Amino acid sequence: MKAKKKKRQDDFQKVKLKVGKTKPKADNATNTNFRSKGIHLTEQLKKDTSGPTTHRQLGINDLLSQLHHYNANVKQSALLGLRELLSLNPSLLEQHLSRLLSEVAAVFTDKDGNVRVAATRVLRFIAQSVPAERVAPFFPLLSAHLSCAMTHIETGIQEDAMKVLDVLLEHYPALLAARPAVLLTNFLELISHKQSSGGAKKAQEARTRTWALSVNPSRAVTSQQWRLSVLLRLGRFLQAVVEERPVEEGDLSVPAEGVFGSSGDGRLTPLHLIWEELTYSKVGVKVYEHSGAKPTPHSTFRLRPEVDTGPAVGESLDSAEAVQSFAATLVPLLLEVWVEASTSDCPWDTTEGAHLLPPDAMSVMFQVLSILQLLRKLAPQQEHQDALDAWFRKEYLGDFKQHFMKNFPYGTRDTPKHKKKVNLKRSKQTAVVPGLSVEPLALNITLCQVMVSLSQRQGLGRETDGDWLTPLRTFVRDTLSNEVKLSYRQLHMLLGTVWKMVFTQRSKTVTEDLLAAVYFYYQQRHLTLQTRSLLLSFYSKLYLQEQGHAHIARSKVLCRWLASLPVQLSQLGHRNPALSARLIQSIQAAASRGNKDLLSSLQTQACRLYDPQEGVVVLLPAESQQRMVQLLYFLPKMSQSLLANLSCCCTAGRISAGLAASLIRIVHLRSSLSGWSVGSQEVALQDVDYISFLFSTLTGFSSDELASLQEATDDSALPPSPLSPLSLYTTSLEQFTHQWDVVEEICHCLETLGSKSQCFDILQNGICKYLIKLGVVPDSMAAGLLRAVSRLLDLSVLPIEPVLRFLSQCCLSLLALLITLQQEAPADTNHKREAIWGACVSALNSVPRLLRMVLQLLHVGDLSEEELPQLGQILSMLLQHTPIQNELLANAALLQEIIQHLTRYSRGATREQWLTDLLYCYSVTVAHGSSSHRGNLGLRDMY
């Protein structure tokens, strides 16, 4: 036993440690006595030079990768770095736009609020720098992340999603409004929840109402403030949907004025398409595959699974049924929101001051009314909007009258301000809702527009709306009549309300009452161009609806407005061409309908409007000038003073030659000599006045201007000479060309009068009475007279001697001017020289004895040495012109005598070239024509 015990103790011996002795090493101890050297990789210490970096030396790839970090501070720092990097290097936006949008949108739902705020700021920076067409391919991803944020269970993420929505509504409204159904459902889920319709008791309610307002006590703001914030964004979103719809009716450039158009017979406006501009445009263009023969299948992609989401959600709002279904869900919720807001701040005494609302309640009501108004505009077409209005009236007129009209009009309640400690929570509540302040005027005008849209036309078998329309009509009349300062939008809404009342009430008294209020506002001074144009458009379109509406026909207010238009146009002049153009359009519309009040006023102001110096007809742009000329056709009478002004307008060059020709044709049509009339339109001018107008316009200068030319002492006119009996006043090329076109039109009018002999007799009497005593004659007038005489001459009436002498002087003076122009500036005066030569040879060929008198005026002995070559060139040109060879042969003896004198007086050792050319032309002409025309005594006696 002792031996076994001792052996067992040997196996488990205990080591005894003694003080001061070294501790023995263990059997498995590791020897750590070794040395190592560090390895340095220099490539790892180099900076990344592949692209721009931030001040922390981080590139865009590093920053985007840090957005996936688990630490919120790292993600926030990465977003701040992205904004810094993109602001310093805008080119990175184009290179990494897809990654930027996807990574930034992914943190919309981050659990940290600072990260979400930083992401919103980065998104705003991107939206300010990148256009919508570049973002369009990636916008579905942005929309998906926005939907996730709006429907997130965390209230803070929902609140920040509203800020993201603000950025997208500000910069990309068209992209956001492309598919509105999903976002509309998100809006509903933000302020309400779906009710469970379990049980037979709630089966009927479930079919009519499936949504109810929700309350979340965990929000940082009150439920009322949160709903107001959501409704504000919903209103902006619906406004974007309305504005981005394809325009199918009315004027594309002024879509806001469609409210004054008639309610039926809409028409499609033809579009001139430029595909580059239509890449991102508000005008929708339908393109059909295979020319529309085969239907194109629609995509089955859905942003969320198709479950039973109730009647509010459809794929789009392109049909009236979808809009009505969404309205049936939203309108009850809006009414509940308003009822809650109105009762939360209701005083104990509700009989007095019930129409006074606190600022929060007024803001809620304004947003509710604005959304109701936008719901009406969601209808795709006008007939759908009328049906939607009828549905609103049937379903909600009673509710609207109870909740909205009970205390109309509304005002602001003055709440006393007490000094108290700043509540940070309250400051957050007010900061979450931008644009809280609403004026009572804007609220009441919006309410008027919403309620009046529910009114129906008065007729047999229909209930009258006078009980609740009367306060609305009174408010509209007082607002317009009391010089209340209105913005353009407010005035537009009021005019739309007046338009609707006029065509629904169909009462002469109501119409006159409302139109008088509008006219009072129209008469105010210092109205902007946009405001006055809007009022003009309202009255003009209302006047066009006069036919078929007995309560509008012959309205005293409309007649007074129409009579004031010519006066306003004459006073306005050219200070505001755009407003003058709108006035002219309104005047033209009423004049074409024969409004007596307007035509009488237009007749009174005609001389001022058509003044050749200060009248609007010469001061306004070309388009307005054309409308002013067209107005002449509707004038009842054209006085002598007006015709004198019109003649000066045609010849002064202040209007184009084509427009002057149109003016002459209109005056011609209104005379009895034209033999053309329409209906019971009377002759506007006497025959004597019409002939006087044509003669004055033919000369191109008034009597005063011709008198001043005779007394002028400057060198503006060429002095008379033996080769130029008259002193010609040289007009500019532009003035001459303008007058030449006018002369052609005058000659055309004179040729259509019937008897050429009578017209020529009148023309030569005018020349004999007013022109033959002139010593200074404008070249345009001389050429015009020769042109008119050659076109109007009838051989049964020969020109009298004084007229023939004056015409011969004009012809010889023009031929001398022609040689001078050819020597001085042949290229610049080509058109003028052709016109002068054509007028001269035409007159020499057609007017008997004119060539003989021209040749008789040529006294070679009186010419200077410089004028001899000019005469030689004139004779050479005449000899080379074949049409007048017969007339030259008839005067061969006189021509031979002139050439002999030229040969005698031309001194020099050698014969000059011009004389050689003249003798050659003379020999060829006389030798060719003498044999065939020898013995033609009758022709010789005539010429």
Characterize the structure shown.
- The protein is mostly helical.
- The chain has a two-stranded antiparallel ribbon. Strands 3-4 form a two-stranded parallel sheet.
Which short descriptors sum up this protein?
943 residues, mainly alpha, two-stranded antiparallel ribbon, 6 strands
Question: Quick recap of the structure?
Answer:
The chain is built from 43 helices and 6 strands. The chain has 943 residues and is an all-alpha fold.
**Major sheet characteristics:** 2 strands, antiparallel
Beta content comes to: under 5%
Shape: elongated
Q: Count of DSSP E strands?
A: 6
- State the low-pLDDT regions, or none: 199-208, 248-259, 261-271, 288-315, 425-432, 932-943
Q: What is the share of helical residues?
A: 55-70%
Distance between the termini: 182 Å
What Rg, in angstroms, do the CA atoms define? Answer: 46 Å
SSE topology:
Blueprint: H1 2-11, H2 60-66, H3 72-88, H4 91-95, H5 97-106, H6 113-129, H7 132-135, H8 139-150, H9 155-171, H10 173-176, H11 180-191, E1 192-194, H12 203-208, E2 211-213, H13 223-243, H14 320-344, E3 356-357, H15 359-377, H16 382-403, E4 411-412, H17 424-431, H18 440-452, H19 466-481, H20 488-505, H21 508-522, H22 529-544, H23 556-572, H24 577-592, H25 596-604, H26 606-609, H27 616-619, H28 622-631, H29 640-651, H30 657-669, H31 687-699, H32 703-711, E5 727-729, H33 733-751, H34 756-770, E6 776-778, H35 779-792, H36 801-824, H37 830-846, H38 850-856, H39 867-880, H40 885-890, H41 892-905, H42 913-933, H43 937-942
Parallel strand pairs: 3-4, 5-6
Antiparallel strand pairs: 1-2
Helix pairs in contact: 2-3, 3-6, 5-8, 6-9, 9-13, 11-13, 13-15, 14-15, 14-16, 15-18, 18-19, 18-20, 19-21, 20-21, 20-22, 21-23, 22-24, 23-24, 23-25, 24-28, 28-30, 29-30, 29-31, 30-33, 31-33, 33-35, 35-36, 35-37, 36-37, 36-38, 36-39, 39-42, 41-42
